[in-house]
Amino acid sequence: MADNPSNPRDDILKSLQGQMVWIPDLQRLFDHWPQDINPHVEQLREHVDERLESSLASDLEHAQRFRNETVAYIRDCLTEDNGRASTVKSPLHPIITSFEPIGKAIRDAYNPAKVDIFLREVVKYVEMCGVEQEFQMSQKLPTIEEYHERRLGSGGVGPCLAITE
Questions:
Q1: Averaged pLDDT for residues 31-55
Q2: What is the pLDDT of residues 117-144, one digit of tens each?
Q3: Helices (H), 17-99
């Protein structure tokens, strides 16, 4: 009987087992930040747990359809006034449709070139979230370059910078 291929994540954990790992006290870096607990923390925990247990977290195909619907809807929201018919089919998840007022505000506040930059950054963000999910569900560890690219895309910084610069 052939051995199962080893899982790189398990191999790393095994190599660290019994080792002394020093983690610096990072609290000092944030001492000057205001600190408090969100009054809705229990509701947030329930929501996060629910999302983690959903089929989106464990079903790549379903999650990819959700990402595709999200991108199509965001694209339509950001280009709504261009005279073409919407390509988005209803009904969509409320999380997706909650982007509508945001899309309108961005269209109203920025020129088409800036809106296009924002759209490209949002699409990149959604795509990198898919890549992140694939890595999380696989036994593969990303290379430093793959991790760096994914992290830059899935951190949400690009869309924020696109509308604030």
A1: 84
A2: 999 999 999 999 999 988 888 878 888 8
A3: 41-53, 55-58, 60-78, 94-97
| Residues 129/156, Cβ–Cβ less than 8 Å | no
Distances (CA, A) of 124 to 22, 42, 67, 112, 128: 35, 32, 11, 18, 6
CA 135, CA 71: separation in Å to the nearest integer? 21
Q: Which residues of 121-137 are buried (b: 16+ CB within 10 A; e: fewer)?
A: bbbbbbebbbebbeeee
The two structure tokens encoding residue 115: 């809106």
DSSP per-residue letters across 107-160: HHHS-HHHHHHHHHHHHHHHHHHHHHHHHHHSSPPPPHHHHHHHHHHHTSHHHH
Q: What is the pTM of this model?
A: 0.70
